[in-house]
Amino acid sequence: MAAEPLKTLFYPFEAEALPLPRKDGRVLFLGAEPGFRLPGGFDAGLHLVQGFRPHFRALQAAGYTVTPRAEGSGFDAALVLAGRHRGQNELRIAQALERVAPGGPIIVAGGKDDGIDSLRKRINILVALEGHLPKHHGVAFWFRQAGTGAAEALRAANPDLVVEGRFRTAPGVFSFDRVDAGSKLLAESLPDGLTGNLADFCAGWGYLAAEVAERSSGLSGLDLYEADFEALEAARLNVRGAVEPRFFWADLLTETVERRYDAIVMNPPFHSGRAAEPGIGAGMIHAASRALKPGGRLLMVANRQLPYEQVLAAAFSSHAEIARDGMFKVFSARR
Which pLDDT score is estimated for 101? Predict the structure, then answer.
């Protein structure tokens, strides 16, 4: 979670560099993450936007109004929490410009290590900044909505991408500009002619599911599970086959998978922000085991240094490494 940048975002109000929104005001919060604390007297209505399912669920549980994509217009102000991806940051600012009423303030904040100074300079070319403040190892800057010309420029600079001439992706999603090398190794290692009900866990923008659908005419079902809403929306455009795929926006670590599968393919994440967290992948392995039928098969890829062998041994009746290159290893495991 972005604890320090969240503090930075609200600091201009605490420092009285900006007045608090009026009590009956409406404030759009793009990129909202759990754990923020509102300054005293900040009583305006917040509409939060968060497409990462675990954050979405945490914010919803805290009682906030939250949607995976921005909705509505005429907001009195907007807050934008910037992350590490330049394109995603710029598109969030474009959304703020499009949805805030003329003259309304737009406040942006992020960590210095995530490139907030570069973002501030970039936005200052397009709109006149009113001010900026450093705090909590980050920077907050703000400006007023003064037309949508800057939004149009930001959108033009960050179009949806097409990878390998066929896969649509969007800035900010995992491996948005190329096929992930681990996923490619897994696809190359998959047996031909997979049959029955199959799921792609951590499906991203749908590369693995598309490869399976193209090569497996005997599927009776194909389901994609993904925590990133925008990645899943891209997958809807990328995955087609003999069976109609189904798409589930889900946090596989905390939400139950109701259907049971003959096979699951998976390239699980192992980072939370910059920190490596092998426990995420371990949790995904257990989720896959629970979702497979007896005798069902898991085919997954992982970085070579990640110690998943013991987890696989505990969750499956058998497992084996079936492929390896300089960075990744591919496992096959039986339920």
Answer: 97
Residue 221: Cβ within 10 Å count: 15
Q: 174 and 146 share a domain?
A: no
Indicate yes or no: pTM above 0.85. Answer: yes
Do 318 and 294 share a structural domain? yes
| Distance (Å, whole) CA 83 – CA 113 | 10
134 pLDDT tier (thresholds 50, 70, 90):
very high
d(Cα 218, Cα 23) in Å, to the nearest integer?
Answer: 59
List the structure tokens of 249. Answer: 């926006």
User: How many domains does the chain contain in total?
Assistant: 2
Per-residue DSSP letters for 55-99? Answer: HHHHHHHTT-EEESS---S-BSEEEEE--S-HHHHHHHHHHHHHH
CA 42/CA 260 separation, integer angstroms:
47
Q: How confident is the model over 221-272, as pLDDT tens digits? A: 999 999 999 999 999 999 988 799 999 999 999 999 999 999 999 999 875 5
Structural domain of residue 314, as residue ranges? 161-334
The CATH number of residue 83's host domain is 3.40.50.150
